[in-house]
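dumping this here so i dont lose it
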């Protein structure tokens, strides 16, 4: 493999966000490159707190300012490029904003789906892997934790 980034460890943040008036549906984004759906997710920048990075990604990808409410889980996986990824998944609540697609992002569309609809997308091969479905199933089953008991503020020397 000639990929100079092969073997890197990366952290990503995901936030499960519902429309303010429908807590049984969830925002998903359609990727421009592979035309598959996923929860809003993105890389956490160096020295950025994981929850701050996840909040930033939601703002960049779907135009909402959100507040992190709970930790859904931390899932490691290997990307198709061979990188080790640690994805930290939260639930969040919309504070303000209007859904919008930013042309600079890799997103072509925003939509909302129920858990049943996400399962159907997965069966049809229209999800970016099975991770978004697994995260959503954990969240809907109530397997969440208070963020402040799990993830502590950044340490400063």
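and the seq i came up w/
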């Amino acid at each position: 493999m000639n990929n100079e980034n092969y073997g890197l460890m990366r952290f990503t943040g995901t936030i499960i966000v519902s429309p303010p008036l429908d807590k049984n549906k969830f925002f998903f984004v359609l990727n421009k490159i592979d035309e598959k759906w996923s929860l809003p997710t993105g890389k956490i920048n160096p020295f950025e707190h994981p929850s701050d990075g996840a909040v930033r990604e939601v703002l960049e990808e779907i135009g909402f300012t959100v507040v992190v409410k709970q930790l859904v889980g931390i899932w490691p996986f290997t990307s198709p490029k061979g990188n080790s990824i640690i994805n930290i998944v939260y639930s969040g609540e919309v504070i303000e904003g209007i859904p919008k697609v930013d042309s600079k992002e890799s997103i072509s569309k925003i939509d909302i789906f129920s858990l049943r609809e996400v399962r159907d997308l997965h069966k049809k091969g229209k999800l970016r892997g099975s991770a978004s479905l697994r995260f959503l199933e954990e969240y809907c089953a109530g397997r969440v934790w208070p963020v402040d008991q799990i993830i502590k503020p950044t340490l400063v020397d």
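The helical segments are 50-62, 115-123, 131-140, 147-150.
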